[in-house]
Design brief:
Helices cover 42% and strands 14% of the residues. It is of the alpha/beta class.
Length: 335
Amino acid sequence: MRQLYRPLLSLITVSSLLLSAPIVQANPTPPIDVVASFSILANITEEIGGPLVNVTTLVGPDADSHVFNPSPADAKSLARAQVVVINGLGFEGWIDRLVKSSGFKGKLVVASNGVKPLDFKEETKSHAPEQKDSHDHSHKHSHKPKTDHGKHDHAKHDQGEVDPHAWQDLKNGKIYAENIRAALVAVLPTARDEINARAKYYIDQIEALDQDSRMRLNAVPAEQRRVVSSHDAFGYFAQAYDVEFFAAQGWSTDREVSAAHMATLIREIRKDKVHALFVENMSDPRLMQRIAEETGVRIGGKLYSDALSAPGTAADTYLKMFSSNVNTILQALEP
């Protein structure tokens, strides 16, 4: 079975080379200033906008958006921008205050518009230990969501009932790309053909990686696809690719894990015969090391949840990040 775990180096290398090649215009359009709330959105915007955009990233590689505190310089970046791209779904709890304080007057793009959010309440009725706080719960993600929320619902998102990590399903990544494409075309109508061409090529790459990831993960026996992540950022991945995830923390990393929660999680890991633990690039590894010591389950490597890696490293684009996560999971589950 070892051939099933071969990294997708050819796909990613070709994708990176082609996407970085500029499309020549007869009358070059001056680039516009775009601000993206975090590194994954920044990369998607750069891939679609190419030389037409100058992208400033608020929360950079290997950084945690959940605990981010905007600075006066960030407000100045928004004030200069023609476009601001955010995730939505309650992910950036600080963004509304920042937009208001900056005086931003341009186009605000909610990249997740059109995504069907996963509802934590519905997901956790039978699988999570009872908790007093909706931010502090462990999840086992494996079943299809039972609810259809449609678009953005600020009341629910502010209460932490909706999982904001929608980019962890590549089909949602296509929705993000399409929303960003439409926004850039609206602001730069004279560059419509270039933007559309870049977006089409990029979405084709997302679709190819999505199909390949499903095929490779489905080759692993279902009872073996049980893993633990540092925080609950992989619900969409679990639903889309049929991998059962347990999480040490809830969807936000801004709260400490209680002793009672840890005890419950350790019991679940032993009971359900979880096969691997994973640290995250933006999280302190000591929590996962403690769980590994308590359960005897090995740490299988590093996953990228809410942030890309530094430029020039293994997960410095959205596609490379996703491919790296798939490869890491498969290698950890290999007999």
